[in-house]
Amino acid sequence: ERMRAIISTLSGSEDKKKSADGCADDGSDFGEDDDDWNVYRQISKDEGSDSSDDELEAKLAHLDQTILHIDPSHVPAMMRHDEQEEVKRGTAVSSYVATERDFQLSLGTELVQSPELLFQPSIVGLDQCGLSELMDHIMRRFTPEQAQLMVQNVVVCGGSSLFPGLRGRIESDLRSLVSPSATLSVTLASDPLLDTWRGASRMAAHQSFSQICV
After folding, report:
1. Taking the alpha carbons of 133, 139, 144, 150 in that order, is the dihedral positive or negative?
2. How far apart are CA 137 and CA 131, in angstroms?
3. Given a cut of 90, is residue 92 above it in pLDDT?
4. pLDDT tens for residues 19-55?
5. From residue 58, how far is each of 45, 46, 62, 121, 203 by CA, in Å?
6. What mean pLDDT is predicted for residues 170-198?
7. Residue 186 β-bridge partners
8. Which residues in 37-46 are b (16+ Cβ under 10 Å) and which e?
9. In this prediction, what percent of the chain has a pLDDT beyond 70?
10. β-pair partners for 187
11. DSSP sequence for 112-136
């Protein structure tokens, strides 16, 4: 196809070279004159037709649509070209499309370390007692008999009680604070978020509430 285009261009030239005897040049000295190379420039222009450009853009658009189904953050080639022009003009605006992955947090040891702050505040530099130490401090304020009654009815509530395994951790720590023969019962509230409020509400509505207030 390229050779036919070269032959057609050479044969259609209006200013054919002539040899010294007046005959048409056979092309053996092609290239000695700089104008000879204009043939290739003309062929390049002919091959770069609008139809081929349109076909190329259509293929690129199809590929862009296929990639977008797989990666929503993909920026089509045409948009990248437009962005380069906008950068030159100083009017560039980011075309990045945020995806669900941009709003995700990858958690590893944080899943364990965060609840552990309730038992070891020193992890983040807080000079305070943890939950287990606090329970031990409270139980020491009562007699062994009273403490025995308390550990038989421990209810875990509040938003933090929703941490997986928290109830079991409290039960394990309490077991180390009482005698091996002691009866221990640790239960999770049916509605950890609101049961505390409901209990306080009933207490406030009781007729003897004013008598127990300090």
Report:
1. negative
2. 10
3. no
4. 444 544 555 565 566 666 666 666 555 554 556 677 8
5. 21, 20, 6, 62, 74
6. 90
7. 154
8. eeeeeeeeee
9. 64
10. 155
11. HHHHHTTT-GGGGT--S--HHHHHH
Count CB atoms within 10 A of the CB of residue 186: 20
Residue with more model confidence, 91 or 122: 122
The closest of 124, 136, 126 to 170, measured between CA atoms, is 136
Q: Which residue has the tokens 């009654």?
A: 149
Per-residue pLDDT at 142: 92
Residue 131 burial (10 A CB sphere; 0-12, 13-18, 19+): middle
Task: Report helix, strand or coil for 207.
Answer: coil
Number of H helices, E strands in the chain: 10, 2
CA gap 70, 53 in Å, rounded: 26
| 3 state SS of 187 | strand
**Interval 57-86 mean pLDDT:** 71
